[in-house]
Please model this.
Amino acid sequence: MPELNISLLQLRGMIGKQVLVGTRAYQVIEVLEFSQELVLQHSLDGTDIQPNQHGDANRRVPATTTVPVLTADRNEFHPAFLALDLIN
Model:
């Protein structure tokens, strides 16, 4: 099966879009070029504690997660990517 090609430009076009992952709303904030993943930031009040370089709790930051766009063999879209519901 041939490799599936999706351009970086197409993925970058998703930056700023709101998506649903299950019942949680996220915003696409970045595209990881090498691994072709979307970085999602929780849109509401979900925060994580960010440690400093010494491992001490430093500040609260919005929760983020990554979603792979393609499967490992790059032959099809990843199920997690296909499960994203576009809000806007």
